[in-house]
Amino acid sequence: MQMPPLDPGILARRSQIVAALRAIVPGEGVIDDVEGMRPYECDGLSAYRQMPLVVVLPETVAQVSRILRYCQDEGVKVVPRGAGTSLSGGSMPVGDAILLGMAKFNRVLEIDYANRCARVQPGVTNLGITQAVEREGFYYAPDPSSQIACSIGGNVAENSGGVHCLKYGLTTNNLLGLEIVLMNGEVVRLGGKHLDAEGYDLMGLMTGSEGLLGVVTEVTVRLLRKPATARAVLLGFPTESGAAECVAAIIAAGIIPGGMEMMDKDAVQCAENYVGAGYPLDVEGLLIVELDGPGVEVDYLIERVASLARERGATTIRVSEDEQQRVLFWAGRKAAFPAVGQITPDYMCLDGSVPRARLVEVLGRMREMSKKHRLRVVNVFHAGDGNLHPLILFDANDPDELRRAEEFGADILRLCVEVGGVLTGEHGVGIEKRDLMGVQFTQIDLDQQMRVKCAFDPDHLLNPGKVFPQLRRCAELGRLVVHKGQIPFPDLPRF
């Protein structure tokens, strides 16, 4: 993955930049030694690593504002970072940019049960929100597999989902308000404790913007009451196509499960060895279907789902008997990624979405691609909304295997677009899919997206090298008047 060339002028001024940052964030908030910065050299896309210029860990909004204002005035790039769990390289550091870590913003500021919302800082973990409110019978719905570690600020940046996003939506569907610091240091509040803020949907614009437009310093999220009843059903099929057809049949019947996940044979075996969730090992495809709501409704829907599964050849139908077993069924799915790590030195986790009706075709063509690239692929995905998470197994110590893994992944993502899907569902673009943006979007589309970037960050200092396959100067997009050919920032790197 090619990144923008490093600015020698910035590198030469490193000591001055570090000194200025220490004046803003005193004490241990600035890390500039190599060993201290080592934990920040990559994010969840660990095949690619680069040391940042310096790491700064602010504790207050005022410090974030001063840091960004200083960086804009001095032309210093900034890479915002939450917990560093991004699987698309969205928070991968850049050698001539400061890494702005938000981990110290880790407090729950307010819980408002009357309005069913919570105000939290961006460093609070996804699961931490639910843990703060569960004693009162509430929870926060989006639940990515990394929820024990990923931060809510990172969830906003990537518009994260999770296994229950089919019924309860992605991050954007569960946000009420944001506080954001722009590159010029201005602090902006969007939304609040109410639904559907007036005016332009700037909160929707910021959600999923991958740190390109501003830095989130506060998040207001919607809280939901825990359902009266929730039960999970394991459905095992002798073929992957049977499982995929069952997914389409359940949705076609008008049933919207709380979650509906699919795992192939390899994923099932890995998860079972890792967790011991009671998964059947004699199936090619496994569905986990959760149904929630009033008890009578759940009992009826379980029978409907079981009937649809039998009609499509299900050989295993197992219903959770209590809450402990339901959690155990899900524990296997949520641990699928680390479980696969037991059988391979490395894997590349992809993220693309396809129409449910094309799942069978896509899975079959992925198997063909696996033979072509001579690499195994393990499939775990949010079947209900067609959000695929294929895991390509490889050895990062072998440059040829890494190259083939990249090519394999690119082919899968092109396939997603070909069948009417999109490049990403919930992991963002980052650097992983950056160079494939032209597959889904025309140049006009990309130019319009870049115009939005220019409106918030005209100097292109926020999270450089991510999302856009080619940098475009604001002048090229009609944002600036060029007098006598004198274009501002003529040294802006291209890649």
Q: Would you kindly provide a written description of the structure presented here, covering whatever features stand out?
A:
By secondary structure, the chain is of the alpha+beta class. The protein has four domains: 8-101, Uridine Diphospho-n-acetylenolpyruvylglucosamine Reductase, domain 2; 108-225, Uridine Diphospho-n-acetylenolpyruvylglucosamine Reductase, domain 3; 229-338, 2-Layer Sandwich (Alpha-Beta Plaits), CATH 3.30.70.2190; 344-432, 2-Layer Sandwich (Alpha-Beta Plaits). It has 17 helices and 19 strands. The protein has helices at residues 8-12, 14-24, 34-37, 61-74, 126-133, 152-158, 165-168, 202-206, 240-252, 265-275, 295-311, 323-334, 336-340, 359-373, 399-418, 437-440, 443-456; strands spanning 30-31, 54-56, 77-81, 97-101, 108-112, 117-120, 138-139, 175-181, 187-191, 215-222, 224-225, 229-237, 259-264, 285-293, 316-319, 346-349, 352-353, 377-382, 387-394. The strands form four sheets. Strands 12, 13, 14, 15, 16, 17, 18 and 19 form an eight-stranded antiparallel sheet that branches. The protein has a five-stranded antiparallel sheet with strand order 5-6-10-8-9. A hairpin with a 5-residue loop joins strand 8 (175-181) and strand 9 (187-191). The relative contact order is 0.12.
List the helices and strands and how they pair.
Elements: H1 8-12, H2 14-24, E1 30-31, H3 34-37, E2 54-56, H4 61-74, E3 77-81, E4 97-101, E5 108-112, E6 117-120, H5 126-133, E7 138-139, H6 152-158, H7 165-168, E8 175-181, E9 187-191, H8 202-206, E10 215-222, E11 224-225, E12 229-237, H9 240-252, E13 259-264, H10 265-275, E14 285-293, H11 295-311, E15 316-319, H12 323-334, H13 336-340, E16 346-349, E17 352-353, H14 359-373, E18 377-382, E19 387-394, H15 399-418, H16 437-440, H17 443-456
Parallel strand pairs: 2-4, 3-4
Antiparallel strand pairs: 1-2, 5-6, 6-10, 7-11, 8-9, 8-10, 12-14, 12-15, 13-14, 13-18, 16-19, 17-19, 18-19
